[in-house]
Write a structure and sequence with these properties.
This protein is an alpha+beta fold. It folds into two domains: about 55 residues, no CATH class; about 130 residues, Beta Polymerase, domain 2 (2-Layer Sandwich). Helix content is about 45%, strand content about 20%. The protein contains eight helices and six strands. A six-stranded mixed β-sheet has the order 3-4-5-2-1-6. The protein is globular. It starts with a helix and ends with a helix. The relative contact order is 0.13.
């Protein structure tokens, strides 16, 4: 096992066991392994492979039900926010989510403020932040805490706000031929495929 694989294997445990994002998990793995801060980090594809292996080895009995519960909650919110063309992304879309994972919905809006107004109209509490978008640009994020009855837990829902024009390039496959997000119908298909 080379250093990059060792970092990825170590980081995968924290992604699964503590719900850490990939970046912080890699940094924590560096420290845990006693490697220099400037050590080359594994790419996200390698880390995702290690996460899938970890899930298969240690969480095979629980993770599928947790993923199903998170996808059901995501579908509920996608239906509520259908006017904003929601697309599920992240671990819940990719199938690597556990009960510690948050849900990430990308909204493609005619007016960037309209999603926030919709939350205000529904008297929902949320926090406003920002993150890097799928093209590297800064996008606004509206974050809510939601009860997930199926898990008996509170789950984070993050709404990433994009312009409607951004939707055109959003559905192109990545370098590995994978689609990084899916709309309501795509998530429903995923659910049906996993139930079959």
């Amino acid at each position: 096992m080379n250093t990059s694989e060792e970092i990825a294997a170590c980081a995968a445990r924290w992604v699964v066991e503590e719900g850490l994002a990939y970046g912080p998990a890699k940094q924590r793995a560096l420290k845990a392994l006693g490697l220099p801060a400037r050590s080359p980090l594994p790419d996200n594809e390698l880390l995702e492979r290690e996460v899938r292996e970890y899930l298969a080895l240690f969480c095979g009995a629980t993770q599928p039900a947790e993923l199903h519960a998170l996808r059901r909650l995501a579908l509920d919110w996608m239906a509520r926010l259908v006017h904003f063309r929601p697309h599920l992304t992240g671990a819940v879309w990719q199938g690597t989510a556990t009960k510690l994972s948050d849900i990430y919905l990308q909204l493609f809006c005619d007016d960037p403020k309209s999603a926030e107004i919709a939350l205000i109209d529904r008297h929902l509490d949320y926090d406003v932040g920002s993150t890097r978008g799928f093209r590297g640009e800064v996008v606004d994020v509206l974050s809510l805490s939601l009860p997930c009855a199926d898990l008996g837990l509170t789950v984070g829902l993050h709404l990433l706000i994009y312009d409607l024009d951004d939707l055109r390039g959003a559905l192109k496959p990545d370098g590995q031929g994978r689609i990084q997000r899916g709309d309501l119908k795509a998530v429903q298909r995923l659910m049906l495929e996993n139930e079959a």
